């Protein structure tokens, strides 16, 4: 145990012995990257298959609070990047993790976040193979930011993309909407009421693999993070050059989330999710895709919510519970800062 | 021109229309990533070669000031990650770039940083293929942090690593030491004196390729960032299980840097560089490696500085200009926060 401090100091970022101790004891002892060189060197057998392509993505995570019901910044950093790869049809393989740490941060907190990342990575079948730590002075960042990047392989012949969605394709989500956004709001203590809400944060790589096995004609998928379902559907409608129609009564929503939204004047369609996706599949494969989702814990609440249509190109419309229709636009202002 | 603001607001991070405008106008219009899906999909022909391996690395950059003589946070974010790949023997191919932006940051500053990144990436022969932006409230970060990750390919048969360094191998650096650290110090205005010092920040992928062509037996290389030459040599000595001996009179140092160090009680051996590396090559290839470096602008000041030796395993010793010898230890405390 070379690390005798309780809190991170600037010397833990200085490039010397203290930094090496922090990295070795808190990070690499848990992540066990292959080798100790600055970069990871990886056997790319899956990438060597003719026609295979490489998927590459990145996200910074600045969520507050750092620990919340159902997750923490580390879990979200692993799941978010795994999900970005998965919805593109890639098999997630490797992650990098870069930490920006405020001087004074509790090392015990770092250990919890790192343990959470290792746990999620193992469950998702990915390895955290390389990383970085920087320390900034008090007040120069808010405790801890984590940036993960992910590399995956897209098997030969697989081509997911919003441009492939055609009228008639069915939209399916894998569970209730808005739990993450509502749980974060509640965890911030901005609400007068206390709730049992948990973030939906989950890695969806295995679920996507099952969906693609059951519905090989799946066209496109999106994870429903910032901007929520509404933003994802708008982006797909615009890129695909078709309309999208959803039905309010088909949207899976938890009563508590609806309640939180009513009190705060929010719309659950725009709430962020960290373990939810929408996938568009040909109508003939919709039942198979739905069954594949429901067979997994992270897809137990899966539901058909609508479909792509010929009319109102680039626009998302919702049939309301009262029989009317409304346009579901992209989020214009800003709903919740630092949700992920 | 959808973007009418001068400064970044929280709505630019919210997942809605403002975020899309910021990303499209400031980032993707310049980086021109392949496609607009969340992840980049890349043809991996170089990776499909039998025996080729994938290299993957990441670094967060928190340098202050954001713009300094000879560079800015964007240039350093591209060069740093390119260099991490290059010193491992990889051909750098693709970068990701994730931005954490403080509310109120000038959009003009973002544009300059992005232009700088695009310029450096083009010069280094890499593409910025995917990215992310997050916005945090005032005071939650210090203007702008950038995290880059890099993917490269290690050609079949190439195996660089500190463990391969053997007694007799010659250590070569590609130029004067400490310019970056001294330039950052001067730019912070912490010095009473004004200097003409410029950061040495440079991408070294092409230089490494030339060195490896001239000296195919090259054993290991390290870029001399945080902790400087001293920390890199200590790490190599420890991993290789041999000693390293350098000569003070052989170290390429600029008089101004020595002066700054004397005034501030710093040691140039520990100053950070962002365009400098040390490479260990077999003695028979040292002249060829040196010539290859000197043929490039970023290696014009290359010099042999020492060699690996049988004795004092794991230790770096320096013959001083006065004929004595001193141990060059790893940096223990912290020299300069937020140098990169």
TrEMBL record, chains A, B:
InterPro entries on file: HypE, PurM-like_C_dom, PurM-like_C_sf, PurM-like_N, PurM-like_N_sf
Start and end residues of each PurM-like C-terminal domain: 166-317
CDD domains reported for this sequence: HypE
Entry coiled-coil feature ranges: none
Pfam families: AIRS, AIRS_C
Top-level taxon: Bacteria
One annotated GO biological process: protein maturation
PurM-like N-terminal domain location: 37-154
TM stretches of this protein: none
Family: Belongs to the HypE family.
Cited NCBIfam families: hypE
Protein name as annotated: Hydrogenase expression/formation protein HypE
Organism annotation: Rhodobacter xanthinilyticus
């Amino acid at each position: 145990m070379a690390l005798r401090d309780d809190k991170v100091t600037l010397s833990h970022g200085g490039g010397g012995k203290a930094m090496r101790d922090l990295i070795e004891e808190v990070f690499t002892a848990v992540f066990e990257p292959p080798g100790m060189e600055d970069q990871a060197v990886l056997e790319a057998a899956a990438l060597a298959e003719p026609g295979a392509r490489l998927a590459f993505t990145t996200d910074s995570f600045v969520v507050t609070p750092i620990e919340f019901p159902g997750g923490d910044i580390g879990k979200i950093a692993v799941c978010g990047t795994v999900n970005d790869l998965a919805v593109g049809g890639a098999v997630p393989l490797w992650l990098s993790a870069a930490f920006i740490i405020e001087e004074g941060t509790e090392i015990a907190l770092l250990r919890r976040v790192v343990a959470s990342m290792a746990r999620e990575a193992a469950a998702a079948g990915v390895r955290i193979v390389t990383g970085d730590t920087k320390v900034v002075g008090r007040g120069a960042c808010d405790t801890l930011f984590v940036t993960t990047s992910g590399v995956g392989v897209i098997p030969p012949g697989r081509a997911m993309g919003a441009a492939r969605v055609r009228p008639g394709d069915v939209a399916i989500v894998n569970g209730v909407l808005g739990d993450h956004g509502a749980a974060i709001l509640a965890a911030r203590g901005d609400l007068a009421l206390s709730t049992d809400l948990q973030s939906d944060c989950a890695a969806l790589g295995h679920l996507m693999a099952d969906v693609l096995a059951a519905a090989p004609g799946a066209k496109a998928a999106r994870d429903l993070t910032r901007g929520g379902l509404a933003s994802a559907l708008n982006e797909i409608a615009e890129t695909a050059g078709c309309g999208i129609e959803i039905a309010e009564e088909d949207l899976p929503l938890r009563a508590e989330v609806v309640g939180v939204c009513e009190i705060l004047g929010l719309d659950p369609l725009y709430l962020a999710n960290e373990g939810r996706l929408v996938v568009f599949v040909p109508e003939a494969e919709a039942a198979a895709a739905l069954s594949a989702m429901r067979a997994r814990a992270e897809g137990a609440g899966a539901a058909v919510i609508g479909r792509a249509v010929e009319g109102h190109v680039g626009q998302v419309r919702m049939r309301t519970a009262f029989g009317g229709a409304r346009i579901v636009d992209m989020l214009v202002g800003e709903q919740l800062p630092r949700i992920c």
